[in-house]
Amino acid sequence: DEADKGTYPFYMLKEVDEQPNVMRKLAQTYLSEHGEPEIDDKLLKAMQAADRLYIVGAGTSYHAGLIGKRLFENLAHIPTEVHVSSEFAYEQPMLSEKPFFIFLTQSGETADSREVLVNVNDAGYPSLTITNVQNSTLSREATYTLLLHAGPEIAVASTKAYTAQIALEAILAKALGEVTGQIIAQNFNIRQQLGLVATGMQAIVDEKDKLEAISNNYLLKTNRAFYIGRGIDHAVSLEAALKLKEISYIQCEGFASGELKHGTIALIEEGTPVIGFITQEKTAGLTRSNLQETMARGAKTLTIVREGLAVDGDDLILPDVDEMLMPLLSVVPAQLLAYYTSLNKGLDVDKPRNLAKSVTVE
Ligand code: G6P
């Protein structure tokens, strides 16, 4: 049974470990034997006709949307906005002439996101729901659906649905970029990349002892922490911080590393953990100096770095994949750091207080 915990103490750990297979499953499902995306033509035509994409989601799905924006803009050259569904529903931004909506929702049942879809349908705009649950409400009510095929996600803290959403967005962005004739999309070898991602994820989940030791050393005894990065690394830092907050109850902010100095750095005290993501060549040096700035104020810093950008003294080295797909790897140590911190605090990892897996009220 897919929903069986087996020998795992908690579903979350099982679901983290399943991620390499989820990547392979998505490649099998959505790529041809030659590695070309196989996406419904009608869906691609509808997206091609749009002048702007609007990605809507809540929680972790919203965070997956922040990565999707980069993928759709880079690979398909379509301007893309990302919105928190509970905000969009009651303060709709001015829309472009031909909007296309993408709903990201693991469960397909989130009331905040559904409220937006109801409005979108009333206005007659085309939409796509990317979800893990076939026949869920948002899947039924949107014009198109793509399934994540991640298998049931039971732990409240979402892990494999986040990486599945990003991988599927990448496949879709590649498909769209190809039909609109973008060279960068044509040259993007998605099958090879997803293969590298799967292998890379496996290497990270095989380092559980090291991640548990880092959790013990950096996070277990703190009640405040930061994840920082720039650009796509900032987007991942938001998800990394959410994981830690949800299951360990440590107050953690994901922050744009360059923005820290404009106020928030005042929170850094002796021993405050600051974890930096460094996976993008353009901003690696800048994030390193921002980490230095926190260290000078007493922070206990940790670097999570893509191999090609690593220097002596870096703490966690991630295998290299295309920079656009680095979030698929950089989030994994953060998931495991959250897991071990929660576990060793003796908390219920799978069922954190105050939270529900699927929130069907606004
Ligand atoms: C709840 C869950 C979160 C999830 C969010 C959105 O708050 O606790 O983990 O990210 O809903 O859920 P969805 O099913 O729409 O992705």
From TrEMBL:
Enzyme Commission number(s) from the entry: 2.6.1.16
Primary residence: cytoplasm
Record's function text: Catalyzes the first step in hexosamine metabolism, converting fructose-6P into glucosamine-6P using glutamine as a nitrogen source.
Subunit structure: Homodimer.
Catalytic activity entry: D-fructose 6-phosphate + L-glutamine = D-glucosamine 6-phosphate + L-glutamate
Annotated localization: Cytoplasm
Highest classification ranks of the organism: Bacteria, Bacillati, Bacillota, Bacilli, Lactobacillales
Sorted UniProt keywords: Aminotransferase, Cytoplasm, Glutamine amidotransferase, Repeat, Transferase
Top enzyme category: transferase
One Gene Ontology molecular-function label: glutamine-fructose-6-phosphate transaminase (isomerizing) activity
Source superkingdom: Bacteria
Every SIS domain range: 43-182, 214-352
Identification of the protein by name: Glutamine--fructose-6-phosphate aminotransferase [isomerizing]
